[in-house]
Design a protein that fits this description.
This protein is mainly alpha-helical and 115 residues long. It has 3 helices and 2 strands; from the N terminus they run ββααα. β1 and β2 form a beta hairpin. The protein starts with a strand and ends in a 9-residue tail after the last helix.
């Protein structure tokens, strides 16, 4: 998947990084996120007092999720913005991205170098 001069390869920890077209990268990403969210060892149903039931690497996992999701936004803006405009959807996309970035910054989820 690309976004301008950037090229993103899919890596899920099971295989070496793979060059995928955007639709497959996004499909893999959504399935990977779903598997993490449904895994109670990663996202416990009961967070416990002060979040003690979350794994120690939880912040790292969330950062990786958000970084990869941002890549999807980047791809849409670089490769499909004309189509977004044709459907008169740019205000919605811009608002969604603004919320994503503000949330990421508020909780220090995505490094500025990755935005």
């Amino acid at each position: 998947m690309t976004a301008g001069k950037w090229e993103y390869h899919w890596k899920d920890g099971k295989k070496k990084a793979q060059k995928l077209p955007a639709h497959l990268y996004i499909k893999e990403l959504m399935e990977w996120i779903e598997s993490l969210v449904n895994d109670s060892t990663v996202f416990p149903e009961d967070p416990g007092e002060d979040g003690k039931n979350f794994p120690k690497d939880f912040p790292k996992t969330v950062k990786k999720i958000f970084t990869r999701l941002f890549r999807v936004y980047a791809h849409i803006y670089y490769s499909h913005f004309e189509q977004v405009q044709q459907f008169n959807f740019e205000r919605h996309l811009n608002t969604s991205l603004q919320h994503f970035i503000l949330f990421s910054q508020e909780f220090n989820i995505v490094d500025k170098k990755d935005l």
